[in-house]
Design brief:
single chain; alpha+beta; Phosphorylase Kinase, domain 1; six-stranded antiparallel β-sheet; Aminoglycoside_PTrfase; Hydroxylysine kinase; hydroxylysine kinase activity; cytoplasm
């Protein structure tokens, strides 16, 4: 097997916890009794939707959380995960519709857990977030108004993040991080996956324009804080 994805898999291992393991983890690390748990889509981490009963004196549907198990590479960078969590908390305090981080029983935002995979053990950073209801943008009709609202929200978020400070914020600046728009040219090595198609032609055209018109001007652009939590990412 060859190609970039195989090369990446040699260093990055996506977690593969069972629902039972995830449920036991929530109860042991976060002290919450799980009544139902189910997997959620994810890219290179592993996510679960967790249902927890409300306190006896309250009524209503069970509370919902998202358990995030970071992949092996992210789990080695505790500073990065810490800053991501602090940014989420900051944006929540600023009034943005973001999830909140549920602390562990010991009051921490994350916990490094060693999971038995049968043949060996692997360590993963785990976090628990409040569940943010809604629909992924891929599941709703894309209209000019929707695109405008997305752009407006991104701009408002960027403006607020100018006020965010953290001693380890430099951990967000990863030179080869493919989700950073500065690194669009890195996508060239993945274009082969599209085969010979109209989509490939369009992607090649965009990459060429980016190289010809943007790369030479990158030093003149103001950089944004690059946050990818994998909550819905």
């Amino acid at each position: 097997m060859s190609g970039p994805e195989h090369q990446q898999s040699q260093t990055l291992i996506k977690p593969a916890l069972s629902e039972l393991q995830a449920s036991e983890l929530v109860e042991s690390v976060f002290g919450l009794k799980v009544t139902k748990i189910q997997p959620l889509p994810s890219y290179d981490d592993q996510n679960f939707l967790v249902h927890v009963p409300r306190a006896p004196e309250t009524s209503g549907d069970p509370l919902k959380y998202v358990l995030k198990v970071n992949n092996t590479e992210s789990s080695k960078n505790a500073d990065l995960v810490e800053v991501q969590s602090r940014i989420m908390m900051f944006l929540k305090a600023e009034g943005f519709p973001t999830a909140t981080v549920h602390p562990t029983k010991g009051g921490s935002l994350t916990s490094l857990m060693t999971i038995d995979n049968g043949s060996d053990t692997t360590s993963y950073l785990v976090r628990l977030f409040s569940f943010l209801p809604g629909k992924p943008i891929a599941q709703v009709p894309v209209t000019p108004k929707l695109l405008y609202e997305v752009g407006k929200l991104a701009a408002q978020m960027d403006r607020s993040l100018e006020k965010f400070h953290h001693p380890k914020i430099s951990s967000l600046h990863r030179g080869d991080f493919i989700w950073n728009l500065r690194n669009v040219p890195l996508l060239e090595k993945y274009a082969y996956a599209l085969g010979q198609s109209k989509d490939r032609e369009m992607v090649d055209w965009v990459l060429k324009r980016f190289h010809d018109e943007i790369v030479t001007k990158l030093s003149h652009f103001r950089e944004l804080v690059m946050l990818r939590t994998s909550t819905f990412l």
